[in-house]
Amino acid sequence: MAVKENRAFSEMLAVAQSRLAGRSPLEIAEKAHVTFVQEQQVFLFSSLGENIIVHYPSYTIEPQLEEWRHLVILHYLEMADGTPLNQRFIIFGELRDGLVRGGGFDRTCEQAMALYFGKKPLENLQAVCTALGAKLENSNADLCAVLPFLPQYPVTWKLWLAEEEDEIDGSGRLFLDGSADHYLSIEDAVTVGTIILDRLQRQYEAMFIG
Q1: What's the confidence (pLDDT) of residue 15?
Q2: Which of 156, 209, 205, 208 has its CA nearest to residue 180?
Q3: Tell me, what's the pLDDT at 168?
Q4: What pLDDT is attached to residue 166?
Q5: Pick from 26, 11, 32, 15: nearest CA to 184
Q6: Would you state the pLDDT for residue 83?
Q7: pLDDT of residue 6
Q8: Three-state DSSP class for 26?
Q9: Distances in Å between the alpha carbon of 42 and those of 57, 113, 171?
Q10: Which H/E stretch holds residue 150?
Q11: Band of the pLDDT at 4, cuts 50, 70, 90?
Q12: pLDDT, tens digit, for every residue of 167-178?
């Protein structure tokens, strides 16, 4: 299975690199809202609290990332069209072609929020978000954090904590900006959501469970 996944990733990476070949790096940088440093021939931006370097024209990335996160970044650089964020929250099922895959992820996400995060201390969850470069905001939820996955692709996490005395389970969702379809496909969006759920859990365990 791992061999097939590695082969699939390698093939998709080659396609992504070929689609970016010959594109103007300055145009890419402008539309994707990243910085291009001509002297070093690199794109620079931050993602989940990490400084990311994408080398041009090889499109190799530092630091080394999970394979599918690497691929999503290249797809973002290819697809970005510069559309402004519109500050309108949408769930994954509302994305273009997202009824099945996006809706399925929304349900998976809600289950993960209730089972893993619903009873965690709020201050711990806030610390996890801060460690991932998130901006905490006031909202109708107990926790609202804007996670900077890519410059024009923020993911907002809203979480309502469990209330044991009233026997109310915790619940939560991940939201995208209404402009998300201009930057990634539904397949990549679900990958982004999966990566974020994994990173939130791993970050929590690293900071508070060890």
Answers
A1: 96
A2: 156
A3: 72
A4: 60
A5: 32
A6: 98
A7: 82
A8: helix
A9: 8, 37, 41
A10: strand 143-150
A11: low
A12: 678 899 999 999
Residue 164's pLDDT is 72
Q: Which residues have C-beta within 8 Å of that of residue 150, sequence separation ≥ 6?
A: 32, 45, 47, 73, 76, 183
Backbone angles phi, psi at 121, to 5 degrees: -60, 135
77, 95, 2, 70 alpha-carbon torsion, rounded to 10°: 20
Residue 93, both tokens: 């099922």
Mean pLDDT of 50-75: 96
| CA proximity to 70, closest of 127, 20, 129, 4 | 20
Vertex 93: Cα angle to 91 and 94 (nearest 5): 70
Beta bridge partners of 158: 144, 173
Pick from 163, 207, 199, 171: which is nearest to 47 by CA? 199
Contact call for residues 89 and 187 (beta carbons, < 8 A): no
User: What's the token pair of residue 63?
Assistant: 């630091």
Phi and psi of 107, rounded to 5°? -70, -45
Count CA atoms closer than 13 A to 94's CA, side-chain side. Answer: 11
3-state secondary structure at position 24? coil
